[in-house]
């Protein structure tokens, strides 16, 4: 069965659809009883936003009465194709991205979804978008905060993310 398609839909992840709310805002829809998930995602997004601008900016939680669903509203970002830019420029963007990601790690946040698992549909690096402001991260649904999982799990997640970061570097600079 094909998943429900919403008016103004931009994309669909494994569990949620994202819709355009305006030229500057996007809503991630939580159509089932996922209040704890939406609250957790909002908390992690707010946490990351306080560290730096790498993660898409959280705006608010609300209920979309027309669609009958809870929604996480965030800034709307417009991705651009990185292949239109010289490798030297991409190296600079990647360096900033890596530094900002490490700053998030140092503060106690790990994204956990740089590289899409091969069994899921979509592009390998769907959650990393190049914008006019540089590389940005979206979808913090499976991200974790160190205080929630403890030191040993957090270190393991960071190690895995650094391995994914190296793979992304090769992909981003090698095409």
Characterise this structure:
With 175 residues, the chain is an alpha+beta fold. Helix content is 38%, strand content 23%. It has helices at residues 35-51, 87-107, 146-149, 151-174, and strands spanning 9-12, 17-20, 25-30, 58-64, 69-75, 109-110, 128-131, 134-137, 144-145. Strands 1-2-3-5-4 form a 5-stranded antiparallel β-sheet, covered by helices on one side. Strands 6-9 form a two-stranded antiparallel sheet. Strands 7-8 form a two-stranded antiparallel ribbon. Helix 2 runs antiparallel to helix 4. The longest helix is centred in the last third of the chain and has 24 residues, at 151-174. The protein is globular.
Question: Quick recap of the structure?
Answer:
With 175 residues, this protein is α+β, with helices and mostly antiparallel strands. Helix content is 38%, strand content 23%. Strand 2 (17-20) and strand 3 (25-30) form a beta hairpin.
Overall pLDDT score: 92
**What is the strand arrangement across the widest sheet?**
1-2-3-5-4
Name the structural class.
alpha+beta
Major β-sheet profile: 5 strands, antiparallel
Helical content stands at 25-40%
Number of strands: 9
Rounded to the nearest angstrom, the distance between the terminal CA atoms is 35 Å
Low-pLDDT regions: none
Beta strand %: 15-25%
What's the helix-strand series?
Answer: EEEHEEHEEEEHH
Radius of gyration: 16 Å
Count of separate DSSP helical elements: 4
| Principal-axis shape | globular
């Amino acid at each position: 069965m094909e998943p429900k398609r919403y008016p103004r839909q931009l994309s669909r992840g494994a569990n949620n659809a994202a819709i355009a709310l305006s030229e500057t805002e996007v809503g991630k829809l939580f159509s089932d009883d996922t209040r704890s998930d939406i609250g957790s995602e909002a908390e992690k997004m707010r946490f990351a936003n306080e560290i730096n601008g790498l993660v898409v900016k959280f705006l608010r939680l609300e209920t979309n009465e027309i669609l009958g669903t809870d929604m996480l509203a965030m800034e709307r970002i417009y991705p651009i194709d990185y292949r239109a830019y010289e490798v030297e420029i991409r190296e600079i963007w990647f360096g900033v991205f890596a530094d900002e990601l490490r700053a998030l790690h140092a503060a106690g946040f790990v994204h956990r979804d740089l590289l899409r698992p091969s069994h899921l549909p979509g592009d390998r690096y769907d959650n990393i978008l190049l914008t006019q402001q540089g590389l940005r991260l979206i979808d913090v649904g499976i991200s974790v905060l160190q205080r929630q999982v403890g030191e040993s799990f957090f270190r393991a997640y960071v190690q895995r993310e650094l391995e994914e970061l190296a793979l992304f570097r090769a992909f981003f600079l090698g095409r």
